[in-house]
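LOG
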Amino acid sequence: TNAAGTEAFPNVRGISRSLSNGLQIGGPHPGDGNLISGNTETGLHALRPYRPGDDTRLVHWKTSARLGELVVKEAEDEEGSTVCLVVEEPAPGTPADAIEADLSLAASVAHLALRRGARVELVTAGDSSGVGEGEAHLDRILRVLALYTVPDRPRSVAAGRGGDREIRVRLGAA
């Protein structure tokens, strides 16, 4: 809330292609962390050995020829995935402009995930948007971020309801 008493939503901005490609939003992937690499524009996650019953249209012929065995392209299912976006408290003394920039980053990541068809929950130490999807839910997320106030001491963030992917944004850590 600004000095006039109105809500000022964080800016939603485009995310760089390299970061966007690192935010693989979809089903669970073995061994991944908060950010993993992959081609999210096409939904392609990985190559894996062919299993009987796999669609032969998914065979990656160039790699299969090089390896001498059939491998298939494994697509991730972005529709219906759930992303838990956790906003972690800033360290004491973090400049307000750094916090504001990271709140905008969190808004931008939520917007990207929702645009890719994921359900999103935003969790802060003091609030949660709940799990949802679409433009109305993006407004709820932006409202939670707009109402965020920096505490005197960092608080711990309760875990969200869970999801296929958890992405953490530490305010002022950049």
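LOG (cont.) second protein
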Amino acid sequence: SQSITAQFAPAFPLTVTGSADGIVTSIPSGIICGEGGPCTKSYPSGTSVTLTAAPKTNFGIVFTGWSGDACAGSLDLNCAVDMTSPKSVTAGFATGRTLTVRINRIGRVTSDPPGMDCVSNFAGCTAAFADGTVITLTAAGVDGSTFRQLSAVSILTDIPASFIAFARLSNLRK
């Protein structure tokens, strides 16, 4: 006679809330959440689940960040959730505007809140921000360049869907 012993690892639920403005998917599969959710899938203890937010950009929607038990405050479209207990995560989406920055020499422009990080790209770097977001752009020279001028906008509300900010840097060395 033979006996078989089975050991079962506990599984924990991951609850994701999205909205009609975007979709959240997971790897490993199991979560495809849009239209408000919430969506729930249980994963074995110790599983690392990567959630990916996909805003409906063709409708002017931007991702505004994660909240809940993992990745709270992050603006990264991907969120890694370690399933060591039940977890709940919300993906935020909102109507947004696109900000484009062009740098005409060697330099870098970043934004607060995060989203823009443009390094010496005359073709332009683009970031999307929710309507009404107050944005501070910071320009800095790189490799001996010094910052001379930044033209930008501070509040993205009553502007066209795409606004261009120019950073002018010069190669003035001390």
